[in-house]
Amino acid sequence: MPTNSSPFAEAKIPEQKSHGGVIFPAVLTPAAAAAALTAAVKEQRPWLDSLLHKHGAILFRGFDSIATASDFNDVVEAFGYEELPYVGGAAPRTNVVGRVFTANESPPDQKIPFHHEMAQVPKYPTKLFFFCETEPVSGGETPIVPSHVVYERMKEKHPEFVDKLEKHGVIYTRVLGEEDDPSSPIGRGWKSTFMTADKAVAEERAAKLNMKVEWTEDGAKTIMGPIPAIKEDETRQQRKTWFNSMVAAYTGWEDKRNDPKKAVIFGSGEPLPDHIIYDCLRILEEESVAIPWRKGDVLLIDNLAVLHARKPFTPPRRILASLCK
Fold first, then answer.
1. Which CATH number is 259's domain given?
2. I need a labelling partner for 278 at 20 to 30 A (CA). Which of 123, 197, 217, 295 fits?
3. What is the DSSP string of 254-279?
4. Contact, 87 vs 123, CB < 8 A?
5. pLDDT per residue as tens digits for the range 241-273
6. Residue 184 structural domain
């Protein structure tokens, strides 16, 4: 609990759920009207770290001091987490200021399926920040779901499938154009994916990610894996998490270059069973929490513990993001 003099008050909202007696997500509002979020974070960092570890996600709501991308950048800096460069990710993004980027810029009518950020590469963020600069006219929520809950339900319902995943892992394949394609949710071109226009440098950076690159006439094919699809969370009593982008790849990695059914397979080379992937999607949606964005909201997610997604929306909507090691 925060101290009596804390700048934070814990709040309840209708969308929250309880998993094993733990409310998800935690919601913090200002204890006093003039409370500034950046100063409050600096004052309460150890407590906020423990709260995030317990709940998996924290929504900061009602802090009038956060209105711009620069304000959001100050909040991210106040937490003191090290920045993670966005190397190897699939989403088209634009740097706004400092450590702040746009969230996935794919068209508003497209749903982005559940995933752990950059779970398809070895170096992924442990923390994600989202900030609502412009709230959508309708829709556009960022649904979140505790990963261990998904693992437990899948293990109970599809034990043989989960055993196979734990044994073999998965392989992700993505075909990239040369430049970014903003019409695609996975439209990041190879130049921005590897942050270079030099193919030799791109190959070196891919190798550091244990990623194979095959050059095509108009782009590149990247192959990642076999890579684990289940992780053991050592900081939370060894509990297992559904740490992958399997459903996102199988149901959402589709554009003029990519067939989602070929985007992810078992590490043994076998295709994934269609009906089980769609059952997993149903479980993800059942267990998820989708809180409508309000201007000024800041959402902090433990990427090791929580998957996220995006619902289609009526623009305008501007959500900014920051990734941390």
1. 3.60.130.10
2. 123
3. -SSS--HHHHEEETTSPPPPHHHHHH
4. yes
5. 999 999 999 999 999 999 999 999 999 999 999
6. 147-285
